[in-house]
Amino acid sequence: MTKRFKITIAYDGTNFAGFQTQPKQRTVQSVLERAVNKMSKEDEYITVFGSGRTDAGVHALGQVVHFDFPHEMTAENMLNALNSLLPLDCVVVKSEIVPDTFHARYTTHGKRYLYRVSQSHFVDPFKRNYTGHYKYPVDIEKIKAALPDVVGTHDFSSFVASGSQTKNHVRTIYDATVRRDESQNEIIFEFAGNGFLYNQVRIMVAVLLEIGRGKRPIHDFLRLYEVKDRSQARETAPASGLYLKEVYYD
Amino acid sequence: MTKRFKITIAYDGTNFAGFQTQPKQRTVQSVLERAVNKMSKEDEYITVFGSGRTDAGVHALGQVVHFDFPHEMTAENMLNALNSLLPLDCVVVKSEIVPDTFHARYTTHGKRYLYRVSQSHFVDPFKRNYTGHYKYPVDIEKIKAALPDVVGTHDFSSFVASGSQTKNHVRTIYDATVRRDESQNEIIFEFAGNGFLYNQVRIMVAVLLEIGRGKRPIHDFLRLYEVKDRSQARETAPASGLYLKEVYYD
What was the ipTM of the complex prediction? Predict the structure, then answer.
């Protein structure tokens, strides 16, 4: 009777200490597991598996998790039940029953991230938790000229946070775009790839903004791939601007 | 050398216990006074006067305050100095030096409020603090037909929270509009008037939504003006959707 549920969720990361369960911290995984286990009468604890972690303050529009639920329930009832139990900063947007071979983390083909940069002179109080902030003038054409260097398979050793324990830093980026949202005075980046290293998107955004500001040559990514030196990429754009937009499966 | 400053501010009301100073609470007035007094070497405490209170959770796009500052400073320097001292959920958008006859509260001719209602089925986690939420279908044409009853001079006794100590409940509304923001799936109300009673906008919005849903007759405002009975207006729309948009002076 146990069935595997694939659940797509959106969350405001502001008040979460990231996705993954940590002692004494409010995390997305812990509030999900509390809701799921509240619905089950079984003694066995139901674990929720995410497609990957997100850091404290990072948001999701389409994070994917799975878990095995030991009672009869339709996908739609699961969506409604979870949304009645979850806190308001985390919502289920889609619920599906999937084969046991599905695994949120191990069967993914990639992810898409979005990054919002506010260009206001002072930080907009309504955006402080939902955008990065860069007040300097940015030539978006320079960033557009740099993005073809980002796409493809590269060694991203210069773009991985020092805390990462991953040895292999080669990743493939399928798609990288930038656009200006004039009405919001924002720059919006999107990156889709087969996987991302710890802080990779936030470091890439910081480098791209410096390219747009004219502080780095347009093709500085090619140099950074060569030097494999995190310190030369310097800045990390803040967590508040980052959104996990989509997780890809077959 | 003392000059009066008129300061227009925007704030995210989520983490404030309203505008007005209260013991042991974080309020807009208290963070403003802390910033202003940090800039002054005088022993005398500088008090900041607002155009009026906003409740806990209510936002401002254009709240106005004034204070007397005993040191030489340009309006522009005041704006920059305050923004470097204020927390990120409160920002100065405009700074002016005004005559001593200006008073943020006593010389105002009226105010404009905006109210955002999200119509999503479940609460959008990114809007939970920034909109009211009403999932039921609303016929906006019915609300448009009711709005002419709102405009004008009326006794709003049915639309004042029971906690109010104001005796005179007659107010004049200059302008009342509603529109649907399709891209955001929101209904946006705006009300301009010579003054508003405690919770008046939030109670009016709740009644207008019930008119739009077909739970009240279109001209129920006319009946509510007559009965002068708060209990018949029933609901109060949540603070999270309300924005003080503008304060009017000569």
Answer: 0.90
